[in-house]
Amino acid sequence: MHTRVTADQRRPTVDKRELRQILGRFASGVVVVTGLVEGEPAGFTCQSFSSLSLDPALVVFCPSKTSRTWPGLSRSGTFCVNILGEGQRDVSDTFARQGVDRFDRVCWSSGRRGNPRLAGALAHIECDLRAEHDGGDHHIVLGEVQDLVVGQADSPLIYFRGRYAGIRA
Predict the structure, then answer these.
(1) What whole-number distance in Å separates Cα of residue 107 and Cα of residue 36?
(2) Measured between alpha carbons, how far apart are the two ends of the chain, in Å?
(3) Residue-wise pLDDT tens digits, 17-73
(4) At 103, phi and psi to the nearest 5?
(5) Residues pairing with 163 in the sheet
(6) Smaller CB count within 10 Å for the chain: N or C?
(7) Which residues, 6 or more positions from 146, have their beta carbon under 8 angstroms from its beta carbon?
(8) Helix or strand holding residue 23 (H, E)
(9) Which is nearest to 42 in space by CA: 84, 70, 66, 83?
């Protein structure tokens, strides 16, 4: 038997630092979400990414509400998820920084839908924005897959316990 928990009952006291350490034990791939904002390329690093559904073809990622890049990409209604390869730590770091010309530091080309595709990635997934929901200090973004391209890399870039790692497939 399941009982519903009220909002007042759901507010446990959780140490944020401890939670971050625990969640850091979950290894995740690293993606860079790219698109065009007022005709200019834009993008950011994100490690909260996953497949959601095969039918319809949906992916999900969760950009921080403090992101300066996501609002513009959201307004454009389309984006590309670039799944980074093991040798792209510098690309991940570049797109995680604020105040730099990110696209001046990487090789890229335009995809079929106009969104930037980063050279050297494992794959490129071009999407239309399907939905955006509140997720605490993050947005929960659903993308409807419109185009898929297998990239050049063989092994993924992994983030685990605050560090990059790679795996050989």
Answers:
(1) 16
(2) 43
(3) 998 888 888 999 999 999 999 999 999 999 999 999 999 999 999 999 999 999 999
(4) -80, -15
(5) 160
(6) N
(7) 78, 113, 126, 127, 128
(8) helix 16-23
(9) 70
| C-alpha radius of gyration, the chain, whole number | 17
> Which superfamily does CATH assign the domain made up of 31-57+71-162 to?
Electron Transport, Fmn-binding Protein; Chain A (2.30.110.10)
Sheet containing 28-29: which strands, arranged edge to edge? 28-29, 157-160, 163-166
C-alpha–C-alpha distance, residues 22 and 5, integer Å: 24
Three-state secondary-structure class, residue 42: strand
Secondary structure class of 20 (helix, strand, coil): helix
H or E segment at 145? strand 138-150
Name the helix (H) or strand (E) containing 70.
Answer: helix 70-76
For 81-134, the DSSP string reads EEE-BTT-HHHHHHHH-SSS-GGGSS-EEE-TTS-EEETT-SEEEEEEEEEEEE
The residues spanned by each domain of the chain are 31-57+71-162
- On whether the CB atoms of residues 62 and 132 are closer than 8 A, the answer is no
